[in-house]
Amino acid sequence: MNAKKIDKIATGVLYAISGIIVFILAAMLLYILLRGLPHVSWHFLTSPSKAYQTGGGIGIQLFNSLYLLLITMIISFPLSLGAGIYLSEYAKKNWLTDLIRTSIEILSSLPSVVVGLFGFLVFVIQFQYGFSILSGALALTLFNLPLLTRNIEESLRAIHFTQREAGLALGLSRWETVIHVVLPEASPGILTGLILSSGRIFGEAAALIYTAGQSAPALDFTNWNPLSVSSPISIFRQAETLAVHIWKINSEGTMPDGAQVSAGASAVLILAVLIFNFGARALGKRLHQKLTSA
Predict the structure, then answer these.
(1) Residue 291 pLDDT more than 70?
(2) How far apart are CA 280 and CA 241, in angstroms?
(3) Which of 99, 113, 140, 273 is deepest in the core (most CB within 10 A)?
(4) pLDDT of residue 74
C-alpha cells in the first residue's frame, strides 16, 4: 500500500471521528432544546420558582446567574489583565515566571468541586462571608483566572513585535506602548476570551453549591440598599443560580412539575451558553475586520 492510500485512509478516519463527535454533540443539544423549549415562556423566565406547587419559573435564578457573572468579571478581569500584561510584556525567562506559569496550569486543571470546597473553607467559613454572591464570585474568580490570564497573554503575544517597535520609535514609553498600541490591537482576542469565559462561568454549578448557596430568597426590586438581603444588588445574600437550580430540582424532587421546569431551565442555560460562544466569535471577527480595515 503506497503513501497516498495510507494518507487517504487516515484522513477518512479522522473525518469520521470528527463527524461522530459533532453528531453526538448536536444530538445532545437538540434533545435538550426540543425537550425544554416548549416549556419556556415569558412567565417562566420572569416568575419565581415554587416548591410543592406547579407553575414556578426561573426568574430569580436567571437574575442571580447574570448578576453573579457580572460581579465575577468585575473581580477577575482586572487581575487577569494585569497578569497577562506582566507575563507577555515584562516577565523575564527565569524560575519565578516558570513557577507562575506552572501555578496557572495547575489552577486551570483543578475540578470545579475542589474550587468550591476551597471557597467554602476560605470565603464562607474563614472570612465569614457566608453563603453569598461574594463568596461565589471569589470562588469563580479562582476558577476563571487561569483561563482568562492565558487568553490575554496569548492575545498580546500574537501582536507582531514591529507594532511595539513603532510605538517606541514614536517616543512612547514601554507602558504607553502596551496601553495605546498593543492592547487595542489585541482587544478582539481578549474580548472573545472574555465572552467565552463568561459562558463557562454562567453554566458552573459545583463550585457555587458550596459558596453561593442553594436558596433563592425573594428579591425586592424597589430596595436598592446593598446591605439588605432582599436587595437585588446585595453581594451578601444567598443566590441560587440557574445551573444549581437544575441540580437541586433533580436531586430533591420537591416540585410536582420538576421535570418540566428542569427541562425548560436546561434549554435556557444551553441557549445562553450558545449565545455566549457564537456571540464571542462574531464579535471577535467583526472587531478584527474593523481594525484591519482602519
Answers:
(1) no
(2) 22
(3) 140
(4) 92
List phi, psi (to 5°) of 82: -65, -45
C-alpha cell, 178: 502596551
Task: Give the separation between CA 203 and CA 243, rounded to whole angstroms.
Answer: 6
Burial 75-112 (b: 16+ CB within 10 A, else e): bbbeebbebbbebbbebeeeeeeeeebeebeeeeeeeb
Position with higher pLDDT, 267 vs 289: 267
Name the grid cell of 215: 436558596
What span, in angstroms and rounded, lies between the C-alpha atoms of 80 and 152? 7
Q: How far is CA 46 from CA 62, 63, 122, 175, 261, in A?
A: 8, 9, 34, 46, 13
Query: Which of the four CATH numbers 1.10.3720.10, 1.10.10.10, 3.40.50.670, 1.10.3670.10 does domain 39-290 have?
Result: 1.10.3720.10
172's torsion region: left (phi>0), alpha (psi -120 to 50) or beta?
beta
